[in-house]
Amino acid sequence: MPEKLRIQITRERFRIVNREITEGSEPRARFYIMVSVSTLIASFGLVANSTAVVIGAMLVAPLMTPIFGIALALVRGDAFLLGRAMRAEIAGVVLAVAMGFVLGILHPAMEATPEMLSRIHPNLFDLIVALLAGFAGVYAMVDEHISPALPGVAIATAIVPPLANTGLCISMGAYAGAMGSFLLFFANFLSILIVASATFVACGMVRDIGGLTKKNLIRRFGLATIGFIIVAGFLSHSLFQMVQRQNLEQSIRTVLTDELANYPATGMDELIHNIYEDKLFVMAAVHSPTVISPIQVKRIQETMTEKLKRPTELIVRTTKTNDVSAMGSTSQVVARNLNGFFLSSNVNPNVQKIKTAEQIIREYLTSQMGLHLHDIEMLHFEKAPFILATVGGIRKLSPEEIQNIETMIRDRVGDTSVRFVVRFVPMVFYNRNGAIRYEWANLKIFTPEQESVLNEIRSAIKNEFSKSSDFFLTNLNSTIIENTYYFFPEVAGMRLFSQNDLQLLKQKLSETFNTPMEIYVWSKPGVVVTQHGYKSYDDHAGEMLRLQKDTFSNEIENLLNAAP
Description:
The protein is of the alpha/beta class. The protein folds into four domains: 3-212, Up-down Bundle (Glycerol uptake facilitator protein); 245-329, Cation efflux protein, cytoplasmic domain (Alpha-Beta Plaits, 2-Layer Sandwich); 349-427, Cation efflux protein, cytoplasmic domain (Alpha-Beta Plaits, 2-Layer Sandwich); 434-526, K homology (KH) domain (GMP Synthetase, Chain A, domain 3), CATH 3.30.300. Helix content is 54%, strand content 18%. It is built from 18 helices and 16 strands. Strands 11, 12, 13 and 14 form a four-stranded mixed sheet that branches. Helix 4 (64-76) packs across helix 10 (175-202) and helix 7 (124-142) packs antiparallel against helix 8 (150-157). The chain is elongated, with a radius of gyration of 41 Å. The protein starts with 10 loop residues before the first helix and ends with a helix.
């Protein structure tokens, strides 16, 4: 070997290194104890998904030294050291796999963890890391100035964790995973063996440099080199497949991100994909203020099929969330970037329109009584965007109010084609007297005297309608405004409650109560006709409930439980 490629090592240092490797390659009790302990530590770390515990196992694992022993024995032609180091390494490997298997069998609830899954698919990068770490390890051993770096090398090469993972996988019946884990160990073993041998040669640790002819090199390292080439080829193919999977996943993620950008405050949390019978199956977990509908999923699926140029089936798992700012919900929250910021100024135009419309609607409803915005979304019909707002409250928005809001939205977003539609969800409040009409929702506290007068007049009104055969009292609201008592009975009947009927009712009440009062009657034509006469709907409903009391409650409960 040319002198310029050789690394100088003193004779004293050679004796120390040779002694350390020889002693560390002896298959004695302490060696097996340390293998067992390190494997158990690694197994517990893998099962508990603890990287720190796995690192601790790497620090105490003794399996790297016999690999150095095999390399040194091949370089120097030392059959005795070769046999001893091979026995130690093989026995250590078998013991490590067995310990992992036993722990997996004894564990009460074994489940695959990310630490375990990360070791079942080795690739070319693992081989490269093993080559570099093997060189660092053997060089740290021959150079006394950098020997303290050896623990770091032990962490990088990771000999014991793949073996422990192999045993755990076998105990779970995951034989493909066990083969992948063992392949990771075998790749590390061959890499360290070859690079350590080359480093020993470069350091001049061969007995006779001239004796290392091409024939000797082939005889000593041919099998290891062939194995290394085969493993490198296999891992290169694995790396190629991994790159393909990552490229496909990135393409899927790009399409989904672009499509989900059309929905306010919606983002992707997790993506899983697989190819089965030439069809791509994708499961995307997303967060959104509303559940992604089947129609929307179908539209995204068709886009993915077109852009990825392969049949695709998409499943979306939606987690309902809502990002709320002082102005309402916001669409700008994204994953935190490398600068640590979490708001995006690059918002999809449609999402920006929805956000602007929401601010306008909230600003308007803030000045109105009894109205609340539930949610807002954008629909497209005949290429025209529709802003659909779900509004709940005690009154409906008038057509004039809807038109004014639509005009404000168009002006603010700069698009005259935008239409504004309201889905109204009525809110009705009830107290002991029945439904409270919003214009009668006076919640002030009356004096005991006023409360007494109100109750007496209410009872009198109920009594008058109970004597009538033409009208049924269905609801009664009342309040007091500036010492005047106001009443609002709601009645149903075969005819309208006329002004003459109202005057007659007020006259009868005035004869009994010397109190200023006003009465308004909401007359609703409509009664339930039976063979025994006429009834109000409420009376008829109560009678039907009594007839079905044994089964009706169970039926209603089943319906309510089945409702979304």
